[in-house]
Amino acid sequence: MSERRYTLTISCPDRVGIIAAVSNFVATHKGWIVEASYHTDQETQRFFMRQEILADSLPFDMAGFRAQFSSLAGEFDMDWRISDSAQKKRIVILVSKQDHCLNDLLHRWRSGELLVDIPCVISNHGDLRGFVEWHGIPFHHIDFANKAAAYENISALFEQHDGDTMVLARFMQIVPPSLCQRYPGRIINIHHSFLPSFVGAKPYHQAYQRGVKLIGATCHYVTEELDAGPIIEQDTVRIDHGDSVDDMVRYGRDIEKNVLARGLRYHVEGRVLVCGNKTIVFR
Amino acid sequence: MSERRYTLTISCPDRVGIIAAVSNFVATHKGWIVEASYHTDQETQRFFMRQEILADSLPFDMAGFRAQFSSLAGEFDMDWRISDSAQKKRIVILVSKQDHCLNDLLHRWRSGELLVDIPCVISNHGDLRGFVEWHGIPFHHIDFANKAAAYENISALFEQHDGDTMVLARFMQIVPPSLCQRYPGRIINIHHSFLPSFVGAKPYHQAYQRGVKLIGATCHYVTEELDAGPIIEQDTVRIDHGDSVDDMVRYGRDIEKNVLARGLRYHVEGRVLVCGNKTIVFR
Amino acid sequence: MSERRYTLTISCPDRVGIIAAVSNFVATHKGWIVEASYHTDQETQRFFMRQEILADSLPFDMAGFRAQFSSLAGEFDMDWRISDSAQKKRIVILVSKQDHCLNDLLHRWRSGELLVDIPCVISNHGDLRGFVEWHGIPFHHIDFANKAAAYENISALFEQHDGDTMVLARFMQIVPPSLCQRYPGRIINIHHSFLPSFVGAKPYHQAYQRGVKLIGATCHYVTEELDAGPIIEQDTVRIDHGDSVDDMVRYGRDIEKNVLARGLRYHVEGRVLVCGNKTIVFR
Amino acid sequence: MSERRYTLTISCPDRVGIIAAVSNFVATHKGWIVEASYHTDQETQRFFMRQEILADSLPFDMAGFRAQFSSLAGEFDMDWRISDSAQKKRIVILVSKQDHCLNDLLHRWRSGELLVDIPCVISNHGDLRGFVEWHGIPFHHIDFANKAAAYENISALFEQHDGDTMVLARFMQIVPPSLCQRYPGRIINIHHSFLPSFVGAKPYHQAYQRGVKLIGATCHYVTEELDAGPIIEQDTVRIDHGDSVDDMVRYGRDIEKNVLARGLRYHVEGRVLVCGNKTIVFR
To answer: What is the ipTM of this complex?
Structure first.
């Protein structure tokens, strides 16, 4: 955890020799691989991999890595990316009034478990200003009377704060298509149902009406189609006939925050690779 | 477990004094209550209860109980039922070619865990005859060339064998509305998804396409609308991007058989009370 | 949830007619029972029950209830207790430096999910003062140079703040026998293993050494014998060979806080009845 | 699943270049890697890997592979093994009277899910002869009046049937040290508790006495110390105060058979590598 690492993620058409070529490249430069994961998607015959390499074991920095690796990458027609654990991702959190996910994320951040920067929190309500500012994090209350203007505002704040990822931590607003298109794979939502069941509003009410015996939560990338983006993480919890909608909401908060925290962690550590409308998560 | 018990299940409009009236009735006759469960449905304000009473602690048999209890039942406008643990329910199992649920149910039956009679097994294929008959259970292979005739046949066999409940143990056929109407709350299906997600055919393929991170199974009463009847029991299991549809099918078999076994057990022990399209399960 | 309720808990030698007698008493006074649970411990043949009654449906207050109920209670040789949902339990939280459980409990409290008063937080370190005081809750930093004096101090603060229950939210100190004896069933601990495995210090290190495939957490009442008191709630989470002790600690935090929150909730709502070294938890 | 595969497992001291060297070897011979997993044990700094390679993509058979690979293996001081999915492992099952695990394993075997040969089943009782023989599998009833002779007998049968692995499917007998030493990593047991809790006899009774809120099962390699060998797989299930020892036994059967089936599958597919008293399981 503590040593500085480069994380290399690659996707390319599958063929013989990819692992060998990449491992050779790393070994030739005396790189120490501490974690390595591979997957081939059967439908697309596309190969995905992720390696964590000790930064200090390599003789070059990220720019040097990029320069050296590019010809090999070209040869295999790779989509690839390298990131440095020393450069924290910048996470902008959007919330409404419910604060269980926010409280959870901020605790993980201030205890050093979630290794990100949080340049600001944005909300359509002012309620959570005090709690956020106690953490020394700027809080922006956006007026939603004009939704289009509000989203322009959010977008501007995200750019201004140099955000990498937007996290909808029970934001309870439908993000417009323009924003989704602008930041593909960079907006993460927590939906309070086990998708694809109970899309849209009031999923716990829907679950109550259907009489399901477990409820769930889903962390996913936001795309134009509501609650239909690539799923990163999900979980469920058992309920029974004695549980009211209020009870479900209460149980649900615990899975929502845990599922969001896990999904965000995978994303931040570069463990999530998108393949069509699905994700590969190299845990 | 071993002592003979009467199981009394009641539903009626909620009001003050129901528990007292019933408990009084039982206590007056020196009945020993070994299990008691209550629930009020908030939407319908209907009260549901279930009591298990040691049969030998009461001075009368079931007919006597019915005679004595009926005036109290009338007073509270009760739907009620009493059953005797000594009279085993008669379960007719319908299967196709996949036998994991059948194998599981027959083992629970022959080991004495599932206290039912299994007068026969019915199938649209002959494959499982040998295994069923090894248990000394009659096996009926029904020709499905003419579906209407096939279901007439099934219905006739069910009546002739004096069946209480029909269990579709991966029967893989859509039961016609007429049969559903004829046996409400008496046909149990195991569906290989976490309903309401992935209704209908090939749910594991649907799950694979959607990229969910858990798959599930649902045990429910069969109604006219496909896979939409009251849910008795559900469960989920974690999968990941490395799991093919075949892997899901394999994981799925384990939850399917466990969910069906639990759901059937609840049904057989009179623990399931239907309330609209939902169930109360007094575990 | 919102209506005021009396919660009646009873234990007594099992015999015919207890439910009838209690239900009669309640019904005679027009009491509206909204939740009722029963259990007989087979080893001791002791009967346990819990009823929630709408306070406004009864013609008397708690003192009146006590006066009216006492003769019936005597007749059945009952240990019994009645509590009023309008009188919140007073919970004193003890912490060390790790704050994930504290953060979780304080969020549940300030969001109105955990209906208790928290008169103060006590710690052997000063680190969490700022966070606690931001909630408007007094924070007492106790010097542990002299342990005996420290526990005298804690005991005095608990009395002075009129505490009902002491919660060791990862307090990481062994409470002396004198304190355990003084507050039986009133000190709750969260232990970071699935007891009885890995009693004592560094349970995650013990789990790592043993090579278990799941780790857990246990919420229990504190007794004189270390980590051996009646268990209220437990849970486990899957790990694998790739998880270091640090990873286990991280996963562990999530189960610890959830298990403590659930256990404390059961305790506060009067759902936990102690029977020897075991608990009955009427969820 | 269906294509023939070679599975290569390796452990050796960790250093730079192992993955590269092995991947190069495979790529040079046009080998198509379909699954690859790596792990470094932090305590021993030992490296473990497993690769599945399509057999037909390589220009040589297993003997050829061994001949070609040995110099590289020597260079890195590897413990290594290669197996062929076309050569099924031979599993000898030992049972007593309880047959839930046996029933489960035989079903997985006859449905083609568990790809092994079962040359015989051995028991200290005759009860399960009929069921085993219905499968066309020889059944040996061993007299346990003289235990030493009985184990000599078992050992002889195992050799005679050319067994690879002995599975104690609720065999309920303590295997003598001599047998454990003779077949290290080749005897698999299912213990009906979540080890290290409740070692030895009657674990469900122990669990009942301790008042735990979950029970579990553990699949492990058998070593001389009772229930202390390397753990392959575990799971738990929730119980509550209402569950008797008999109920625990019933719930337990379901986790026992699932945990054993998963553990055995991992073992058979060469996914389990032993590291001291722990296992690496490349799922």
So the answer is: 0.95
